[in-house]
Design brief:
Elements (H helix, E strand, L loop, with lengths): L2 E4 L13 H5 L6 H12 L5 E4 L9 H12 L4 E5 L12 H7 L5 E3 L3 E4 L2 E6 L9 E2 L5 E2 L3 H27 L4 E6 L12 H8 L4 E4 L14 E3 L2 E5 L2 H4 L4 E4 L1
Parallel strand pairs: 1-2, 2-3, 3-4, 6-9, 9-10, 10-12
Antiparallel strand pairs: 1-13, 5-6, 7-8, 11-12
Amino acid sequence: MSLYAIGDLHLHFQSELKARNQIEDKVWQNHELIFKENCCSLMTDEDTLVLVGDHSWGKNLTECKKDLEYIIALPGRKILLRGNHDMFWDAKKTNQLNNAFDGKLLFLQNNYYSYEDYALVGTKGYTFEGPFYVDRYGNIQGWDEKEAEHAEKLVKRESERLVSSFEAAKADGYKKFIMFLHYPPTNILQTNSIFTKIAEQYGVEQVVYGHCHGQSRFHDSIVGKKRRIRYSLVSGDFLRWMPQMIIK
């Protein structure tokens, strides 16, 4: 029984395809078929797969019906995290989703799930991405102070949700944690953030995240070990649609 993770499937069986890279980049061609084949060859029904957000381009559950059916048909227990494009998922109505898909899918938001003696804790997260960039002289260009202030409010909200989930797991006796985010834990200007501090505070063993697409963005955040925590990017195109084993 193993734990796997991947993110950013961006399925669109019933909805409009909105991302240019999904049309132009070769890695996205037939990715639904490739991913399904990889899952079936790698996983069994005894395994657990955490999908770290951006499951569908659908705007509501009706437009996501076939996308979610595709995920349900994959082997193993499937745990879904909320991504920034998951318009079908109201964070305040996660319990309704869990009731509607009982026995088929698990939705990770303001709660936690167990895997062996670990608590799997997660939230969408947030990090300010601009638009800004660092020029060749190391200067920040395009910074928007108003947008940065708004981003801080989103970061605060998501960090509070994360802490409440950790506390619930701790209250139930869990001492070992794996933390899942959709957004990366830091942006290109940061070496630490509230999310890395929370991970350190609760002694998390691994932080797993998605969201970063395309070769130019694969190193936007932390990858590898930092302060005894392993950070892993698991966006689908980064992994070439092969789920990453988190725990064997």
